[in-house]
């Protein structure tokens, strides 16, 4: 067969190819990514969108966990203070129930209990970052105000509970309304405390009132377990999400990461090929028969 | 008997033919780098012999013709592959531009969708927080803006492609009229039994250029002319006449290719024109429509979710986004956040400001089938896959076509290309033959002198 006398287009195409390879390898190294545009790897490009979605949500859930952990522990430590105060009130009540106190001592006990009462009202009105913790979903006004009610307080909140997502399809309650903690129908802390004060003032039925307060305090303890549980859920979910974060980053690297050694090798290979192609082009067609005719 | 003068005329024919052969070689060397040039060879044959009884005496050499070496089948294959390659190359160039819009996984529509739904999750622990509410609106705004941008980008590209269509059609018309003119000249020369090979080269070259623009079929007619028609049979050149195509904008402003009053836009195949039309009429509308469906699906679903709850003022939630146009066409370009007051996000499910119950409904849209039976992020990632896979398939097809084309060019070169070595060798032959013929004349001259001067060695002056 007759040889094609025009080898240049072939050689230039080969040169173009090696230069393209060098460019791609250089881009991979510079960007640190093997998928720089969807056509580099359509499947991975699509998976990267999902991966970024997961990463965004993972970060979001972790932030939510930090926020609600603060809120939950603020509520829990508030309840702990309430229980301490109640414990103190119970001790005072037992003291008063002895019937050995002088009238002035009795008055002092009542005064102390009244101070505890307002302390507990104030604790029940604790807010965290501007939101009242124990008003259900009524977070913008204090849940309890002192009133002429038999319990000594009026509840301004509702019985609703907010939920927060802390994972895909994983939601937890983040609050207990005051109506369930402090003014539950049969175990109202406020009613029991006010009854104790009234009993001491009238000096009748003090023992029964102490027992009722004690029962209300136990009920509160049981309710408080919610916060402990929630915090432990937050804790374990934080651990889980942090592990998932690593996994997502790892997956991202698998999808789009560059094997630097391979990329560097490709680059140097492409460079060598380019040199060779240039060399070949410079050599081709330098001589023909005309050069030898005299 | 021929006699000495007969021999002289034989030698003379050798001189003349050698000269013509040298001329052919010289023309080949001169055109060694002319695109589309096919090398020529001088075809010679012995002169008609003079017959004397049993003797047949030669009368020298005559130049039969100057022949162009070209393989018509190869030229047809080259035309077809040029059409294919040119169409793919145009598509690939456009797709490369389109895919930049969908290249990043950490910015653009996909990331916007993730960020928007994440901002809703962020609001849920503290639903009255205005800063968090504002960031939901900001994320919604970013999402709408990127939908607008992507949609507008595609629209602008389609509009720019209209310009390519009109330019290509203009070039097609120029080329077909040139082809027709050359065809007339070729017919004229061929009817006069003259050599038209240079013109045929020119015509082949013009048809090659035409193939880069539009898919055509070339038919040789019995009279020696050619007919050029598009793949669907619209005549462009016939009987030495060219028939111009025209363009006409349709209702949506897309330039249509017209042959007279017939719209042939949809039936074109091959060439940059078909590649441009494929992108403008298929790829871009396909992507635009997916963006529209996604934008419309998101807006509608989020509006419905917002309407289920109560805003910070305790009022029933209104639209988060301006409702998309009916049918969704243009939804991506028109996507817009309907509210500027962050208090209007209906986070509450019970009417109290502190409730976050309805945020769960808004967040649930992220896992709802809002477009093509897919969740927002799945729908978008599917779109990224499609863009990537179309681009990468087109690139692969283009690579293959480039290689085939190159191979065909190699083959064409091996048939029609001018080899300088070959020409040099031929020249040596022609020169030697010329020298020999000249020598024969000198010898005859001497013999004539012998005859005329009776042996006295002197040239006849």
List the helices and strands and how they pair.
The complex is a heterodimer of chains A (294) and B (461).
Chain A: H1 8-31, H2 42-97, H3 103-124, E1 127-128, E2 131-132, E3 144-146, E4 153-155, E5 163-167, E6 170-173, H4 178-181, H5 189-202, H6 206-256, H7 260-283
Antiparallel strand pairs in A: 1-2, 3-4, 5-6
Helix pairs in contact in A: 1-7, 2-3, 2-5, 2-6, 3-5, 5-6
Chain B: H1 3-30, E1 40-46, E2 50-52, E3 55-57, E4 61-68, H2 72-100, H3 109-123, H4 130-191, H5 197-213, E5 216-220, E6 226-230, E7 235-238, E8 241-242, E9 246-249, E10 255-259, E11 262-263, H6 271-307, H7 331-334, H8 357-364, H9 376-416, H10 420-453
Antiparallel strand pairs in B: 1-4, 2-3, 5-6, 6-7, 7-8, 9-10, 10-11
Helix pairs in contact in B: 1-10, 2-5, 2-6, 2-9, 3-4, 3-8, 3-9, 4-5, 4-6, 5-6, 6-8, 6-9
Characterization of this structure:
The complex is a heterodimer of chains A (about 290) and B (about 450). Chain A has 7 helices and 6 strands; from the N terminus they run αααββββββαααα. In chain A, the strands form 3 sheets. Chain A has a two-stranded antiparallel sheet with strand order 1-2. Chain A has a two-stranded antiparallel sheet with strand order 3-4. A two-stranded antiparallel sheet of chain A has the order 5-6. Chain A is mainly α and about 290 residues long. In chain A, a hairpin with a 6-residue loop joins β3 (about 145) and β4. The radius of gyration of chain A is 38 Å and the shape is rod-shaped. Chain B has about 450 residues and is of the alpha+beta class. Chain B folds into 2 domains: about 5-70 and about 415-455; about 75-405, no CATH class. Helix content of chain B is about 60%, strand content about 10%. In chain B, the strands form 4 sheets. A 4-stranded antiparallel beta sheet of chain B has the order 5-6-7-8. In chain B, α2 runs antiparallel to α9 and α6 runs antiparallel to α8 (about 355-365). The longest helix of chain B has about 60 residues, at about 130-190. Chain B is rod-shaped and about 140 Å long. At the A-B interface, α1, α2 and β5 of A face α2, α3, α8, α9 and α10 of B.
